Each structure stands twice: as C-alpha cells, then as structure tokens.
Amino acid sequence: MKHDIFDYPDNLKYTKGHIWLKVKNDAATIGLTSLGASLAKEIVHIDLPEDGEEFPAGKPLATYETIKSVSEITLPAACKMIKANEKLLDNPSLINSDCYGDGWIAKIKFTDKAGEKELLDVKEAVKNYKKILDKEKERYKGIYD
C-alpha cells in the first residue's frame, strides 16, 4: 500500500512507532518504515543488541542516531534477540536507503504473544501514519511550497 511517497508492504505488520515486522510463526524480522526512515533523515550510528538478549514489551532494543537526535526502537511485545543486522554497524544509512531490504534491523523471537495484539495491519498503519504525516506537513507548511 502506498500513501503519499511512502510504501508500506501489505505482507507486513506495523507499530505506531514506525517499525515494520515480517512475522513468521513466533519470530519476526524488524526495521523502520519508509516514513520512519524519512523522518529520521540521515542515520549515522546504530547500537544493536546482543544475540540472545531479552527485552520486555516497550523496552528499547536498539537506538539509532541522526545528526540531530537519538531515537529508540521498541516493540509492544516481549522478545528475544535472534540476530542483529551487523551490516548496519559499518553502514547505518542502509536503513534510509533500503529500509525494507538490506536495512532491516534485527530478527527477534516473541517471548510473550500478548503484545502482538498491538501490531497493526497495513490499513490501520497507513491510517495512523497519515495523521503523523499530515501533522508534519502542517508544521512545515510554507517552507517547501
């Protein structure tokens, strides 16, 4: 599904915090959505978790830095790290240039299914992200006209 200039693959799940998840059984590959990567601008550094590390729902499992800020990646479901994308250590800008491909962030295994109910399907996600994008456009109205 597409909204504005941003793509959201139909086969993924999403969080309100701009994270996509490709869920298979009780595991998932995760990354930033195209809108999330665009809002982050240029990602210059990422701290990735160790394989096997466990995270309760809502606890940051990774942080990334842009020129102006540091942001956290959280999930609404408890999980265990299976594998981090180590390519990002040398080239974190892959998140910006290929967010649904080589810019994936981690592979996780859900340890508590309860939080998975918080995940959005593509239609719910696009509705949520549209509101965010509309606020951003209003905020910068006149600058890019």
Could you explain the architecture of this structure?
This protein has 145 residues and is an alpha+beta fold. The chain has a single domain (13-139), classed as RNA polymerase II/Efflux pump adaptor protein, barrel-sandwich hybrid domain (OB fold (Dihydrolipoamide Acetyltransferase, E2P), Beta Barrel). The protein contains four helices and eleven strands, in the order βββββαβββββααβα. The protein has helices at residues 34-40, 87-90, 94-97, 122-139; strands at 2-3, 6-7, 13-14, 19-24, 27-32, 43-47, 54-55, 62-66, 70-73, 79-84, 106-110. The strands form three sheets. It has a six-stranded antiparallel β-sheet with strand order 3-4-5-11-10-7. The chain has a three-stranded antiparallel β-sheet with strand order 6-8-9, with no helix packed on it. A two-stranded antiparallel sheet has the order 1-2. A hairpin with a 3-residue loop joins strand 8 and strand 9. The protein is globular. It starts with a strand and ends in a 6-residue tail after the last helix. The model has no long low-confidence stretch (mean pLDDT 91).
